[in-house]
Amino acid sequence: MTSVETRPETTTPPTTAKAPSQRYRTVWRWHFYAGLFVAPVLLVLAVTGGIYLFKEPFEEWRYQDVRTLAEPVTAARPLSEQIAAAQRARPGSPVMSVIPPTSADRTTRVILQGAETGPWAQGVSVYVDPGTATVTGQIDDGATFMRVVRTIHGELMSGTVGDRVVETAACWALILVATGAYLWWRGRRTRRKPTRPGRGRLRRLHILTGLGGGAVVVFLVLSGLPWSGVWGDALQRVQERTGSTYPSAGDFPHTSDPSLSGDLSSNPDAKVPWAAERLPVPPSQDGHAGHHAAHGVLQPGALPIENALAAARPAIRSCPPGECDLKVLLPEGPQGVYTIVTDPRRDPSAAQTLHVDQYSGRVLVSYGWEEYGVLAKAVEQGVALHEGRRYGTANLVVMLGACLTIVTLVVTGAWMWWKRRPRGRAGAPARPTDRRTAYGVMAVMGVLGVVFPLAGVTMVVVLLVDWLVVRRVPRLARVLG
Hints:
Blueprint: H1 2-52, H2 55-62, H3 64-67, H4 79-89, E1 95-99, E2 108-113, E3 123-129, E4 134-140, H5 145-155, H6 159-187, H7 197-224, H8 230-242, H9 258-261, H10 305-312, E5 324-329, E6 337-344, E7 352-357, E8 363-368, H11 374-386, H12 392-420, H13 435-451, H14 453-468, H15 474-480
């Protein structure tokens, strides 16, 4: 009788104590290996992202000799003459877009097609003095320092493969934050063995940095994912099905495909807003098309760019000089339209896109913030915050802090591992022995894997490698734990 009564008292406490330990060990193991594998990519993303935050002031300083005039212009030549001057500097290069000067002491930027073609291909910017219609200089946008930084940040200079690697690392960064928060929450409730002073300081720095900047890091990752290949395309499809991206199809004509008309430029420096990239473009339908005098910029019978811009100005809601750039994408083909985009430097709600008939100057479509859906607005605001330009210096400092947070977490995490690793082994936390606990943690990880598909795919790959290879090769099992 006594043995029956005392048995629960001797067996229950170890069982209840064992489950949290097993769960902690499982989460720690995932956190360890995830950090070990994606740390190099996250470090590259943080460094390049921190540099790219300063793109605008850097390029303003770097290219001031071609962007700024010594004397303000009092009487500007027509934009069509300025474009012709740019084309003479690079014969045979099609015009991608034109950015008129925002003030009297600025040059006109004419972006011509460069050596590469296709989506996101960079052009060559030819800067023209508006007063004399003479070229002040040329810059290959695909070879600038900040363009290289952007390419490394977005795709590790490896095209589609690099884009997938970056997206995978970004998704795992979210899992690292989640597992790290759990480890801190569980670890503060348990008594840990004394550690060496140096290792203890690294651990405290790692924890405090994660707690202080983890939320901003999560936002930084989430706001960057719409640019990615797999997750970004999935978001686009969700928005299309929910009607949360584009203006209502009943309010605007959907009769022309941008892939055919080519009016929506994919140049990152002169493109329509993210929410309008896939919106079909209406064709020019003026009844006298083809019968006007051949005075157009690109097409016979088309209005000069200055006339099309003048016709569109009354419909432009807001684009204050110095706070907003006005970009004009020229018509392509007989049915092409002038696409005019207002690009505010801070507030994306001031952006607007207009399509103007190239023959009559009639505004065919005008849409902006009011016509965007909820998800499109969220993405646009997220992009502005991600780039550190939404709220000026304060926004830039916060985003820079997030980049420094990632750098600190990567460096301290790798340093802690290097200090504690046994000779000849990875030093990973031991594999849990309780399968039910391991399966529970894997189920939670599986949910995250569904939300972030590339992370899910890599989880499956890791589990298969562990089950089919590591456990069956004694030497690997000893090294990897």
